[in-house]
Amino acid sequence: MSLSERHLRAFVAVARYGSVTRAASALNMTQPGVTQAIKTLEQIVSVVLFDRSPKGVSLTRAGRDFLKTAERLAEELERAVTNLQSAATMDHGHVTVAGVPSITSGFLPMMVAEFQSAHPGIKVLIYDGMASTIADMVRDGTCDLGLTSLAPGEHDLATDPMAEDDLIMLCPRGHPLSLSSAVDWAALAQYPFIAVTRQSPVRRLIEDGFVRAGQVMSAEYEVGHITTIGAMVAEGLGLSVIPRLSLSLVQSRDLIGRPLTPRAFRALDLVRLPARALSPAAQAFRDHLVANRDRLTPHRPVKVNQRPVQFPGIRRP
Q1: Identical fold at 5-88 and 93-162+266-295?
Q2: Are 43 and 67 in contact (CB under 8 A)?
Q3: Domain boundary assignment for the chain
Q4: What is the helix, strand, coil percentage profile of the chain, to 5?
Q5: CA-CA distances (angstroms) from residue 2 to 6, 8, 10, 23, 31?
Q6: CATH class for domain 5-88?
Q7: What is the pTM of this model?
Q8: N or C: which end of the chain has fewer CB atoms below 10 A?
Q9: Which residues contact 257 (CB under 8 A, 6 or more apart)?
Q10: Per residue in 112-145, pLDDT tens?
């Protein structure tokens, strides 16, 4: 037989009150129940913990030595149970969520602020990272949830579809293609191009867009971060294609975005590990994100300045 909370609570109460009767009343137990709990505890530890007399009970030397440990264990156990109950009732808890920069720079902080306003005892920790790393952060338990675009073949994660984020052409203000309401992939292929690296799931979507237009993507540069792409496009080094939500990351540049035809988009999903149960706090935050996914909308076009830019010439076959 193993030691239980019932044994500890009975021992501590009898030691505190010096009476089985008073201990039973405090614990809301029967007197025989307390007596049996003490007897069982003594059998488990193979030591007599109380001296019995007609006047009551008193701790033996072994009982006095055990009392501090028993009190600490009982308190820690009670605290652990209270914490679990508080988490279940959303009184406190924590959630970790990771997202791509285009999500963590707008939608996600707004969701966290609303959620913590309703649940001030719950802390939400945000990680931002590349799409290629967020799924791994969910898999290894670093994060409860991830907002990302999965690569083909990543089927081990449970997903809640969040949004279809259109890809757009990014160019400096005043560029000839900026005058079009929509840009054909074939027309884009005639200019120097700045591509995201192959680690990004968006890269495959861009390559597919060119292929559908009968073109092969030829990149002058390959860059890992949207902010770097924005800086290079602003300096006239080439054009690029980015997700529309990423416009917020380059809005300080002299840039403009235009839709592409035919349309291409990245699917944004809320991902989690199906084999790992979410805590009540994490489940509640997941529900909040899913309920508000319609608010994950494209940003308004960025405001641009009038700084002149020299454009590289059209690429000729």
Answers
A1: no
A2: no
A3: 5-88, 93-162+266-295, 165-265
A4: 45, 25, 35
A5: 11, 11, 15, 22, 22
A6: mainly alpha
A7: 0.67
A8: C
A9: 168, 169, 170, 242, 244, 247, 301, 302
A10: 999 999 999 899 999 998 887 999 999 999 999 9
